[in-house]
Structure formats: C-alpha cells, structure tokens
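Today's session is about reading a structure prediction critically. Students often jump straight to the picture, but the first step is always the sequence itself: look for stretches that repeat, for charged clusters, for runs of hydrophobic residues. Only then move on to the predicted structure, which in these notes is written as discrete structure tokens rather than atom positions. Here is the chain we will use throughout the hour.
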Amino acid sequence: SLARLALSICGWPSSQGSGVTYEGLLLVVQRGLEQVTYTSLCLPDDILHRGMSHVPNYHYRDDGMSLWEAIESFVTGIVTFYYGGDAAVSEDIELQAWVMDIFTNGFLGRTSSGVPSSLQTVAELIKFLTMVMFTCSAQHAAVNNGQYDLGAFVPNAPSSMRHPPPSEKGRAFLQHFLDTVPEVATTANILVALILLSSQLKDRRLLGQYPEEWFTEAEPRRLIRAFQGRLEEIRDRIEERNHLAELRYNYLNPLEIENSISI
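Below is the predicted structure for this chain, in token form.
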C-alpha cells in the first residue's frame, strides 16, 4: 500500500527516534491518508476551504499561488497542444488507466477523497496535471525543506515525549520539561534524519529545468522557455522581498524547488 511504501522510505529514522513503532507509524499514515482530499491537494481550493484567502503576509499562500498559476499556464499550453478537445481526453485509454491507477492504488479507491478516477475534459486534465506537478515540486519543497530549520531546536518539534504533557496550567517546571523531551541519543537520530531530509543533492534538477530533450516540436519548447521565464520572475520577487524582510521565507523560491521528489 501507499502507507507501507512511505514507511519503507522514511520509517527507520522516525521509528528509531520516536516512541512510535513501525505499526504505529503505519496507523498514523493510514489515518492521515483518510484526510487527504482532492481539494486539499489543489492549492487554490485548499486556501479557500481553510479560509486563508485574506490573511496578511501569508507567504506560503502568495508564493504558492504564483507557482500554481505558472505551472497551470505551462500545463495548459502543453495539454491543448496535444489534445484537440474533450473527446481526445476521454478516449485516451492510457491516460484513463493512469488516472484509475492513481485513484485505486494511491488513494485506495476512496470516492470520498474527491480524487477523480477518470478524466473527461481538457479542463479536468489540466487541473489534475497541475495538481500532480505542484504536489511533487512546490508543495514538497514547502513541507520538506524547512524541517531542519524548525526541528534542529528540539523543543520546537520533539519527536517523542518520555512523560505525558501537563494536565493543569502552572504545573510544568524546568526539570519536568527536561525529563519529558527526547534524550540525547534519540535527538541525535532525529537530527541526522532532518539533515538528510533537508539537504540539497548535488545533481538536483530544479523546477522547469529539463536536461533531456523530450520535446522536439517548436511549440512545447517555446512553452518551456516561457515557463522558465515566469519562474525567474517569481524568484526575483521572492528574493527582493526577502532582502527587506526581518524573517525570510525562501522555501518556495524556484531556486529551492526540485522538479520532483528526490528523497
């Protein structure tokens, strides 16, 4: 299952550095998967659903929306170039099998997730592909790249607790706190995992960079150049903001985003 695959990749450091067993982690992932919906994976819908449209200085939303729109524009150009209309989408057997495989094996066939099991129109295909690209690139960067920044100071995000949290206010004291947070060995395990998760690979491929020339037609190549140009504009805007900011937010800078998850 998807949960077992995820844990086979990241379960060792998590289980070694927390009080949760492999089985416990599996249960956590399964419960988390139950909360994943198509709305939560599509940034414009998710922002609206969570009531975060008008929160000021929300850089994740602002940078993320810029990236979503850039990806959507790129995907729109590519899809409309290769698919002449809705019938071309609905009659594409390989495409429909791919979407069904994602629905069945990725989301366990849960219709309640809202994830489509088939695509009937060009618009549906554009949204689905934009979601896939955004999730595997920008969304992953947003939730992964800052793990060390947040978790290196263990009290920010302790991986385990050796005692239950206080049940009454004013009853927590320094020694109780020190006895509760992870001990040195556990902390070391978690820090190693966070360093690995947040490290940049030397051979990483940034969003919009395609060393292999998969497309030979002039129009797709033009669309790639246009996409790269929009990403450069987003990069410049983020770096200009960060230059003046007291607290920088750089996780959605295109220079920090890989084409796909590479852990």
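Discussion point for the tutorial: The chain has two domains: 1-35, 36-244.
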